[in-house]
Amino acid sequence: MVKRRIVIKVGTSTLTGGTSHLHIPQMTDLVRQMAAVVSMGERIILVSSGAIAAGKEMLSFPELPGNIPAKQMLASVGQPHLMNLYEQLFENYKLKIAQVLLTREDISNRQRYLNARNTLELLLSYPVVPIVNENDTVAVEEIRIGDNDNLSASVANLVEADLLILLTDQPGLFSMDPRHSQKAQLIQEINTVNISEELWQAAGGSANELGTGGMLTKLQAAEIARRSGTQVVIAQGSEKDILQRIVAGEKLGTWISPTTNKLESRKRFLLASTNRSGSITIDEGALQAIRRGGSLLPVGVREVEGDFENGDSVQIILMGGQQSALGLVNYSAKEIRVIKGHRSSEIEDLIGYSYADEIVHHNNMTLI
Questions:
Q1: What is the pTM of this model?
Q2: How many CB atoms lie within 10 A of CB 322?
């Protein structure tokens, strides 16, 4: 039997059981379930929130501003306590754990990406249960991933996971916010290529002040993971034996089907590391050339948004706003603004040098 790789994301609301502190019986039961999944022959990675909630509890719930330094302080106090709890709970099932702290740079930088992946691969081979969290104590706004839902999608991408389970305090994704409408219906499955605008609008923010995500971030995470070939399930963490039942194939919560087969390593890196604030807008001719296996040349570029450097992964967008591809650029945003619309033979005359004829080579590109 081929061992599947399963990323399990547990949010603060699930760990606290709706209270203001870590709920030990709830955590104990979740660890029991994860141990059962491992005993089924699967390999798991846990992406766990709860460090800030643990920090507040350890410091007797101080009144602090909601800025990043205060959250970093709470996370630095709470993270060791959280890991100590996990270590004790997993030890009951003779399972070892490892702490893995990541920032956006660890995923967007090619070398750090490979280091993180190699570390996780080795941990899974022993097997050890990696417990992943954002490195809140050092992550400033520019390098923050921002929430553990999107972090879990990046981790799923990193290790080529077969399944991503997002546990929450709701039974799944609803057609509208169930807190505000009795007409809200549970959506059992999404198997279309695109998630409808209605579903995006139905996804709301977090109602739990201890958490940083909500159904919107879960849907965003699902979109990232499914486009790298990972099955996603959004389900209620308090449901009895939820993890074993999902892993066994029971259709609980909302199942979101992958839109593609697993991508090769380079394409996974492109998807994980894209500079979301940077983009290149191309014309229809350039899009058709890319779809035929060609590279993106300067002549097909119409607009450049944001600030990025050569070697960065950026979004490639068709005029009108449809995202078409992701690619590693050979030129910076500043340089592309000068050479866009021109022939490749003119690049050196325009900027004084030439790295390549292409803005993005087809080997460094993946279609969306």
A1: 0.72
A2: 9
